[in-house]
Amino acid sequence: MLGQVAIVGVAQTSGAAGNGRTLEECIHDTVREVLGRAGVTHEALDTIVAASSDQVDGRAISIMLTSGALGGYGKDVLDTPSAGEHALVLAWLRLLTGAYHAALVVSWSGLEVNDLRTVQNLSCDPIFHRQLGLHDLASHGLQAGAYQSRYGVDARAAAQVAAKNRAAGARNPLATLRTPVSAEEVLDSPVVAWPLRELMLPPDSAGVVALVLVSGERAAELGRRGAGRAAWLRGVGWSLDSYWLGQRNLAELTSLRSAAQRAYAMAGLRQPLAELDVAELHDVTAYHELMAYEALGFCAAGEGARLIAEGRTGPDGALPCNPSGGSLSDNPYFATGLVRVAEAARQVTGQAGACQVPGARLALAHASSGFAAQGNSVFILSGEAD
Amino acid sequence: MAMRRVAIIGSGQSRFRFRRDDATYAELVREGVRLALEDAGIGIERIGAVVYALAPDALIGVSNAERWGAEAVGVDKPMMRLNTGGATGISAVQAGFYHIASGLFDVVLVAGADKVGECGHAQVVLNKIWDPLYERALPLNAINMLSLSAVRYMAKYGMTEEHMAMTTVKNRHNAARNPNAHLRDEVTLQQVLDSPTLCWPIKRLDACPQSSGGAAVVLASEEVARKLCPRPAWVRGVGNCAESYFMGDRMGPKAPQDHADATALGHSFQAAYRMAGLSRPAEEIDVAELYAPFSNTEYHAIDATGVCAKGQSVRLMERGHFELDGPFPVNPSGGTQCTNPIAVTAMLRVIEAALQVMHKAGEHQVPDVQTAIASGNGGDHQFFGTMVLSSDPG
User: Fold this and answer.
1) Cα separation of B374 and B292, whole Å?
2) pLDDT at residue B47, rounded to an integer
3) Residues near A72 by Cβ (< 8 Å), separated by ≥ 6?
4) Measured between alpha carbons, how far is residue A107 from residues A22, A151, B44, B204 in Å?
5) Which of A208, A221, A377, B198 could be A30's S-S partner, Cβ–Cβ 3.0 to 4.6 Å?
6) Phi and psi of B2, rounded to 5°?
7) pLDDT for position A20
8) Taking the alpha carbons of B109, B242, A87, A20 in that order, is the dihedral positive or negative?
9) Which residues of A touch B58 (CB under 8 A)?
10) Half-sphere exposure of A95 (CA within 13 A, CB side)
11) Tens digits of per-residue pLDDT, A190-241?
């Protein structure tokens, strides 16, 4: 049987709040804040796992300069540049070994990069994909197009997702975009990468997100075993699909489906739509939230549009999705996946403020990375200790 | 709760050389993976999860190239990548160890590759690891950073240029016996001393090459290891410790650490020894594969293992203590000084330590090895990963 690991603190700095401070200062301040919230001292940390992106930060081995801001001096520091959320996976694995008891997990995304699309294009292989001018947005457009044509999805369904998330984001003090938009406005906004329209896309935000993880033993010492006192990691799955877009079935989020299967099996979840109270999904575009419903088993393949049309993933539905506003409202690019986990942890500990889903106890967080959502991770969080 | 036992049951490495124009990055990764799977005697379907070792993306020129390399390790598997600079390879093996020790997986593949010889010049890329305002403009690079350390080590412990040359002579002698090593020509003390100065006191023959090639390791749970491998290398201890970032913070009377020494590497070894239950390293360890890209850095790395007092390694080197047939062989593979494909260099330290424990090192095998240690240094001498491997599961 796997050991128990809980998230006992989350903190987040949004782009706007970071104005006037360097990235390192934002990281430092966010780390201090999360340690304070968790009631865990720097001395008590036995591992720090960060996720940084050299390309976004604009320097080689970005963890070097940021290590000091993380409190890394004299500490056990590792870095997972494959995705922000992988830092959480690795810290969780370390705590499960029983040899470590308190971990700091941090990821960030600066805004100083001149052109994120060019940066993303550099992750193309030099021979085939790079000349296409491919970047995240273009790949997501290809994917949304494949999905739309495979299942005959009406663009209105994606517009409804955008309207739902932007309405939620308006209540989130950490969000970059805080004005609601209607489905009609979304459909009237210009096409950016067909079938994606401007208001179906996330903004480019900056931010730092930090979490403190502890073992079950340490959680008990901290008095965090009571209901709603910590977010317990019940199930975790992560997976990476093929790199070559031409070899993939772009109409499905294949690696999300397998990541979800792993996480559900671990958490003992059979009917996610019925059993989960809330979900934070990595809506890299509005279409991708629909695709995620299907890969996560909230509905059958091609039924995502029906789910949103019936309001079942809305604030009053069976499974509210992205009550924080999702990445369509705030998108610190490389750290956005980990923000989904932080939001889910807030939900199951009753700390989500104006975004709180009443009585939420079991949450799902989804994080995605790469072209056409090549990589996906799923985390199941519970407000109840076993 | 006792931690689950984990062992290395197979490894693979390319025959490293300057360039590999015949293979893409992903193909080089696949080369290491194929060799490691063959060595472990398993198919890729047995791999439950993958950890990628890829250091600065800029060396490959493709960011997040681990995504490009998905096919090389088998798609739709749990995969993550580690990057702690030069320590990446050992950090990745440690991450693989945690995957299994957690209870979640039984067989994990750790893989990577680098094409340092094709990056233009590694030092131009490595200059970009320093902050844009203070130290980048000096301009620092890995060579002058560690020549500063050499000068300090000379002043503090009496190391000479001849001592540095002795390290090179030893490592080249060993590499000549390692078919996978990049620089395999033996050299004399005089040849090292006569080679052109790169940044005093580091000369061309004190320095590592820029290497290209792939490497991979297969880790397994106790149950699987006992079934598949007659003599696995058990992972008995892992350690990790970070230094400060700015060079200036390691110099001067008020500096918390001294740039001559590898203090954080010492802490990292102590953590690994604690986990392994070692208390007398000089007696309990048979061989060491230590990350030392320049001849001088092998000395403070040896000091950090605790097998001798600080600075004593210089005297012991004079007496042949660290040679292939000496009492405490260091870098029987020839080490980083003879082969440096940056993303997997520290993984090679682990692989070579495992080969020694498994008695599969061939011509550079040290007789009767039971326990071996490995280390990796990353960043600007900032991140230090260590491991203890043993034929005794403990």
Assistant:
1) 11
2) 98
3) A48, B242
4) 15, 36, 32, 39
5) A208
6) -70, 140
7) 84
8) negative
9) 54, 60
10) 31
11) 999 999 999 999 999 999 999 999 999 999 999 999 999 999 999 999 999 9
